[in-house]
Amino acid sequence: MKKILTVIFISLLFAGNSFAQTILQALNDAYKNNAELNAERENLKVSEQELKITRSEYLPSASITSSKSKEETNKLTNQSGGNASITDVDPLTTSIKLEQTLIDFGRGADYKKKQIGIDLAREKLLKKEQDILYKAIEAYSGLVAAKEKEEINRKNVELKISQLQTERIRLERGEIKSSDVAQSESSLAGAEAQYIQAQNEVVTSKLNYENVIGNVNENSLQKSIQSIVNIPTSLESAIDLSKQNNHDVKIAELELEQAEKDITIAKSDLAPTASLSLERSYTEDLSSTYDEREKDILKATVSWPFFSGGKKFAIIDKNQSIKVRQRLLVDNAVKNNLTNVTSAWANLQSSESFLNSVRAQVKAAEIANEGITAEYQSGAGSRSTLDVIQSNSLLLNAQISLANSERNYLLAQYNLLKSIGLLTSSYLNLK
């Protein structure tokens, strides 16, 4: 039996390694295909187009207009009382107009705001990258852990079945009581229930994986408990890196810059604007007197909106308040960054310590279970069926705890990178 299981295990291991999907491959899939991330990329394109629209306002505008009309005028009598006359006018007018804004104090500030908007969109894209990539890591490790726990519970059910069969044979021999068999039956029923629950967890984890990353062959996943990139080795270095890379802080700072530009734009609405235009028109068949006519118009326009019922001053005051609000949000983002990085670092340390403790627990539980089972089967000791059941339960719980702890340790590493601002495609070298 052991030989058969060994052969099966080696076969599965070989197949898994041949078609394995690593966490890096999963992250690449999420980076390329996630709908939320692609939507944020489109938002960056919108900001880039808005800058182009604003830049076009610096250039002169040109327009061509052409019109044609027909006019008939009937006079029954002329001034001398002569015969009636008919005037037929069929004009064709074509004009071209060039216009250039000379002075607009708000246009430059609006252009700079749009430039900031592109940087802001990039930072929001990077923040969304971090959110999606972390979700992908959660989904990947969640499915791996669920599959592992399913296998642990499956083996536990097989063990309980084997134990029950042995118990029934020993009952027939009179070596144990029927109550011992009943305890084994109860233990098997509990193990089967746990196995079903583990199977349901696999189904749920697979759905989450497909929602975040895409299609998956759940049997091809490779387990990993170490980050694929380097992580800071001290809290101080983590904090220093976060000051340079944290996207929440950068977003708050850029929104503050935009608020400052909004004040400049609002103040410019109180200043005059000036423009220059040149229009040339050509008209054919204007009347019976003139067959054609050309006309040039050069016009300079100055506009000064010096009064608007206090509206413009109210807008300035509003934008001043927005600026104060944004400055407060920057300060808050800086404080939150320090808190989040410190918390993520502490969680990483505690996760590693807990993982080491659980590993020791599993090792001890395996030794204890092996000894208790051997004593019970030999009949040399005082071990009972209940002792074996309890020993198996302790080992099972320790193995489940180990699977969860390994996943939590992996997530803690990536959560630290996320809090710093380094859980991005460039740092992970995604393509």
Briefly note the CATH topology name.
Outer membrane efflux proteins (OEP)
Largest sheet: 4 strands, antiparallel
Cross-sheet strand order for the largest sheet: 1-4-5-6
Under the CATH scheme, which architecture would be assigned?
Answer: Up-down Bundle
Question: Which percent band covers the strand fraction?
Answer: 5-15%
- Look at the helices and sheets and give the structural class: alpha+beta
Which spans of ≥5 residues are poorly predicted at pLDDT below 50?
1-19
The run of helices and strands is HHHEEEEHHHHEEHHH
Helix content: 55-70%
CATH homologous superfamily title: Outer membrane efflux proteins (OEP)
Shape: elongated
Gyration radius over CA = 39 Å
Count of distinct structural domains: 1
The count of strands amounts to: 6
* CATH classification, class level: Mainly Alpha
Verbal overview:
There is one protein chain. With 431 residues, the protein is an alpha+beta fold. The chain has a single domain (25-68, 87-428), classed as Outer membrane efflux proteins (OEP), CATH 1.20.1600. The chain is 68% helix and 13% strand. The protein is built from 10 helices and 6 strands. The chain has helices at 2-18, 23-33, 35-56, 105-172, 178-212, 235-245, 247-268, 311-378, 385-420, 425-428, and strands at 61-68, 71-75, 85-89, 92-103, 273-284, 292-303. The protein has a 4-stranded antiparallel beta sheet with strand order 1-4-5-6, with no helix packed on it. It is elongated, with a radius of gyration of 39 Å.
